[in-house]
Structures are given as C-alpha cells and as structure tokens.
Amino acid sequence: MTSTSPVVPRTPAEWDDYFDLRWRVLRAAWHQPRGSEKDDREADSEHLMIVGPDSRALAVGRLHFNTPAEAQVRFMAVAPEAQGRGLGSTILREFARRARAAGATSIVLNARDDAQRFYQKHGFVVVGPAPTIFDAVKHVRMRKKLERPAAGGSRGQG
Q: Which tens digits make up the pLDDT trace of 47-66?
C-alpha cells in the first residue's frame, strides 16, 4: 500500500531514488545530464518524498528559505503514473505548514506553464515572469501569503 505521508529521504538508496525521480520528471525530456536536478542549496533545504508500495519515490519536492520571511519550493515532481492522486498536493501542504512554523510569511516558486493551475488551486498567484529553462520551458513566478494560524485553532487542519 502506498503511504501518502511525506517522508524525508535518509538512506543512500532513498536519496538516489529521490534525485532519480527529480531528474526523470524535470530534466530527462530536455536531454539534461544527470546531476542537473541538483543545485547548491541541497544541503540547507528540506526534502520530502512520498513512496509507493515498492518503496520507490512517487512524488518529491524541496523547500528552502530565501530570507527568514520567504520560503521557496523547488524541484516538485510526481511520477507520471502517480499524477492525479493528490501526492503533489500533500507535499505542497506540508511545505506550507513547515514554512509557516518556521516563521515565513510567504512562499514562492517558479511554475512551469503546465503546472500553473495546480499551484493556483493551492492559493498561489502569478506575480511575474520567471526564467525560461533549457531555451524551451517557460515559467512564471508565483507567491502565496502564509496566514498565521488562529489562536486556539485545531491542529492538523489545513
């Protein structure tokens, strides 16, 4: 059975699988080399994945902080066979929760054109253009304000 709870990759095999999914979904179709799915922020970021019944990554994502008030989501990827099951939504909600808990007041990301609607459903709004990657993949910059939890509110609601 697939666990829909995000986990942090811990073992070398889990990290390999995590980065492999990022490369397959976000880089391979544009003939980018392995390693291009990583950047210089990996060590100071939070990483989450959701695994399937075979313990293979079905969805992954990364969160880092640009400033104490601004978090950024990067490298969100869901395996094609697992899309539409809410796995990306689960990771995104957990990142928003973690960013809010750390004191961030907003969360930003650069969304591919074909992912804009997904992020809009989660409260993100387009705030401007973002770089086109590989001379082919257009992005827009999106932002979501993180509401402070209500005093005395229930935990676990999101």
A: 999 999 998 999 999 999 99
Q: What is the pLDDT of residues 111-122, one digit of tens each?
A: 888 888 999 999
Residues in CB range of 152: below 8 A, 6 or more apart: none
User: Tokens 């929760």 sit at which residue?
Assistant: 97
Q: How do beta strands 125-133 and 106-112 pair? A: unpaired
Q: Are 91 and 59 in contact (CB under 8 A)?
A: yes
The closest of 155, 73, 75, 65 to 103, measured between CA atoms, is 65
Q: Which two tokens stand for residue 19?
A: 């980065």
C-alpha pair distances (Å), 65 with each of 45, 70, 99, 105, 130: 8, 6, 8, 11, 18
> What architecture (CATH level 2) is domain 12-108?
3-Layer(aba) Sandwich (3.40)
> Domain-by-domain residue ranges, the chain?
12-108
